[in-house]
Queue: 4 jobs
Job 1
Amino acid sequence: MRPFNILVVGGAGYIGSHMVKTLSAQGCHVITFDNLSSGHRDAVLHGEFIQGDLADKQALHALFQQHQFDAVMHFASSIQVGESVVKPALYYQNNVCNTLNLLDAMRMAKVQRFIFSSTAATFGNPTYCPIDEAHPQLPINPYGRSKLMIEQILDDYDRAYALKSVCLRYFHAAGADPEGELGERHEPETHLIPLVLQAASGRRAHIAVYGNDYDTPDGTCIRDYIHVTDLCDAHWLALKSLLHGGASQRFNLGNGQGFSVKQVIDCAQQVSGTRIRVVQEQRREGDPAILVANPAQAIHALGWAPRYASLETIISHAWAWETGMMQTTP
């Protein structure tokens, strides 16, 4: 049997590049399509790379004419919540309109399987935790709304065009490739664990903690951190489900346990052996006290089992990447 031919859109980014490595390890032939607006060409370690933009309909149609894809995995989105509030047009253009361009090219080429990178931001402020798939989806910012729009569009495309999809709602992706080949390189960086580790390595003067008066044991926000490799394992299982004729599905991906900002900082200090300077700031608007996933449905339906669930492991892998970056950066 020939290897599966998979298009990874946004495969030069943080999660996308780890996914390309996972797919290659599973014997797939991978083509990455990325405009490099936030990704890195040197992060695409396997398969073929094509630089292009989802806004370019001609380039998309040419791509699908030249290659026969078994499935498409879509990671190319704008992801900063705060930016989405002040630049909503950017988020609706990139996350909604450009995804429609991709889906249109897929339909014309009769590619019927789609894995979508969604987010816990579709749920808004949770009414209960841990959050399962039945939780109401009431996003409170343009980023979350743009992702929910695509989830709803995919429901319509399934009914009308039999285009099968799996939407995977991430809670907080973290960590780095256990083999040290890949890691998190956002510019600007907004995620807690890499920010904390940049403070530990000296690339950042301090770490800001936004609010210490939440209704949590230590007063700081609690989040569910999922290792990027475990995230990719879930994507592979979801893809296999579609490739073998599975129905469209929606899953929440997390470890099912939360850690506070203070716990993350304490763990980072232990892993790095460095004291990290903390600056206390006011709460940020829209930050829920607790965001934790209930991943039971993904575990049951996909047979998924996170391999790197401990916070210490997640931070250790991220720290190995951070120190490697320090050694290679002039």
Job 2
Amino acid sequence: MKTTRKTGRSQKQTKPGIVILATGGTIAGVSRFGAQAGYISAEMGIDVMIDAVPEMRTLADIRGEQIAQVGSQDMSFAIMIRLVNRINDILASGEADGIVVTHGTDTMEETAFFLNLTVKSRNSVVMTGAMRPSSAISADGPLNLYNAVAVAADPDAAGRGVLVVMNDRIHGAHSLTKTNTTSVETFLSPVNGLIGTVNYGKTTYFRKPFRRHTHKSEFSVAGRTSLPRVDIIYACADMPADLITCSIESGAKGIVIAGDGNGNMNAAALETASRAAEQGIFIVRSSRVPTGTVGRNIEVDDDRLRFIASDELNPAKARILLMLALMKKRKLPDVQKLFYSY
């Protein structure tokens, strides 16, 4: 028997309260014809999206707010900060039991990881989106949204960090990554696997995240409007080392190298990056390879060159963590420990 939750809402309400925060993306996109690839992203408002899936109201008491209306290629840290501050305000006040965030898929893993490190609550925060616009034949957005609300309303989802629900899968923010440009099966969690599955609102969980997140995270962006600049440089054959110099001259406080293989780069880039590290620029070695970890002091002498190994984090997520880390002064060994902790 479901018990009434102790929130700021009326004690007569027995269904969980869920707030859907919309940011745009393909899930809110519209195309002229149902059978075409092209569409305009972020056209639909959240109230229209909620009305299109009335079955969600059997799962929870729902209301929506429009935080932004952009394609996720235009997602900014200003929007992310506004989003997490709103999430923290809602959950701290007891206005809702859980949050759903609708978002484009292009940068969903970055926003998910950012929220995973800056949300200050055990309550469920679930992201979802779509690979097909709302007007497409066999649009995936409505069921994704329904399932996301089901997970956010499920007490067993609490304490598992920020989750991403797509295509009947429940992913953890630390592990998921987009792997296909157009397929509905685009998101995978190749290193640590799924958190669980959700089938027409019925949830099954396999595990909990083992890295620090949300209410146990040390990071907060309250009162901030921006973050330190960190750039990503993609390694390749005969990589031009002057890209590192250009990045620093443009104001970067840290650089993530999307390295070859196990976070490698050529000799010229190693030398230039090492000089930058001596000058106080934080250099993180990640990898352009889709799966696997980047180990410390394997092919590269990180101790001597003053580099940081990204461990399990891909370049995009390594950038997020480094930006948050650089909000205060830290020594290099302390930053490396963050990559093992988060």
Job 3
Amino acid sequence: MKHLFKPQTLKWIVILLIVVLVVKLIWLAIEMTLLPTSGINQAEEVGGKSLYYRVNLSPNKASAPKKTLKQVPVGSIKDIELLAVYNAEDTTVVTVIYKGKSKVLGRGEKINGFTLEGAGSNYATFSKNGKVYRVNLIKGENGSTSGNGRSGISSRGKSSSTVEGEIVDAGDHKIVDRSLLSHYAQNMDDIYKNIGITEVKEGNTLKGFKITFVKRGSPFAKLGVQRGDIIKSINGQEINSYNAAFNVYKNIGNVENLTLVILRGNKEMELEYEIN
């Protein structure tokens, strides 16, 4: 039988195994004697690097101020004041004051995030986020609001049946006393006692305002306008929106000449006025 190892080689293998065994026994003895029995703390340095870093926060050092987010102010219905109301069967128009400026709104239009829904004789209703709000008409100097049942108009200020000022026919134009304009600028109700006006539309587009009646003998009758006339422009400004009409109305006291373009039947006409 042939041996796998020579006797000399086998001898060295046995010696090597004995040496390895002795070394392991010595290391085991050292480990049991010197190392702690509770195990190694994982927070100790391993390979010269900490597993975590401690931050020393000084109590005397003021902490950085926290950033605060600016809150966007939410619009309030109290920011809207109701100046005038026009409420007809098919039309609702109001004049409001918002941030010191007046604005004319039609039903469905928005201001300050609120949508005009409708109006009564002395109030308007607005909606926002599913809620309905009521804004009452501003009280006049006498502590009450005024209104006209037929035209559905309410406005701020005193109403007077006494109209001062005359209109003189000068042939190619008419001379209007400025005090007459001042009266109507301050008493909006008196306008609708003497003249009726309705809007003219083509589809959803406002094209002008039509005169539905003129009181006989009134200053408006002396101006030369007639029932059925459609007002197209005043002093070159097209009257195709309530804002345009209101802008003319609120500035009427400052003009010296007035040119009114109307459509009478199929004929366009110009009416000239001099303001004294």
Job 4
Amino acid sequence: MKYCIWNNKGGVGKTFLTYCLSVEYAIVNPNKTVVVVDMCPQANVSEMLLGGNGLGEINLANCYDNNRTIASYIKSRYDKSRFGKIGDELNYFVRVRDYNQNMPNNLFLLPGDTDLDICSSIIDYLASAPERGAWMKSRVFLSDLIGAFEAGKKDAPVFFIDSNPSFANYTQLGLIASDSLIVPCTADSASIRGIYNILRLVYGIKVGNNVSDENIFDTFNTKIHDAGVNPPKIHSFVLNKARTTHREASAAYRAHVDEIVNIILGLSRNYTDKFTEMKNDTRIFNIKDCNTLAPVLNFTGLPPSGLTPIQYEIYGQKTQVNKTQIDPFMENLKNLISLI
């Protein structure tokens, strides 16, 4: 399976969720090959996996120097074989444990790269080539990479694709390469708009207020439909930064959460063909607010389950992690992993 973690809104915790899901899924399933694909120019999930702030930055720079990133591959495709594989696809993946000894041995990474924004121009240039199907051929670079990695494995690897909040063409590469979509949200009206934007941009479904009738918004859906390619089905919605209990939340927070839940339930009933089948009716998950845990994991590059209730030193400052923070977060995370 290939899961894309995306919302057309920034600040909803896509990268942190990708990190936690992939690492803990790999730990819980040691016999499975797990791959993180970093499709965000900021490359934050790569830095975290490769050792956290500091060490991870150095290791990521090493990947840049050795041309082992998604942007390196796109550039190579442009130089060598614009609309076909180049034969060295496996060289762009790294085993995370080779850089970060805290990580499980079955976890791999296709590193991100700040040059993805430069590659965006390359993708658009190839899409406009005077060749039949050029647009679609420009959007399958990541699918080709993933396919090459899968072909070299006896098992069926599980992929987690971190994405940029924009609907840039490199975000589209991630969506086209994935089977399922996990949508992180926060309790605010912008997340509601983000959900509506996903329905419009990916599936061509016009819902919500102030919906434009301009067909330009439906280009992606129209083009993949014409090419016979299906978009990923929606797997779940993750309410990131949730309160420990609903009672502790403010009335405004509860109102936004209730509205998001009602919207999601309505969408899953009205557009069942756009959603994956689930083991039960659970479609919405809570992930506890991690204002303390997230910076610690970012800095240390530890697995979430490797956190202990001690003081961690972050940039010379002592930060206390408590069991009351770890336990609810890990319980929430395990609930989501159990349905992947």
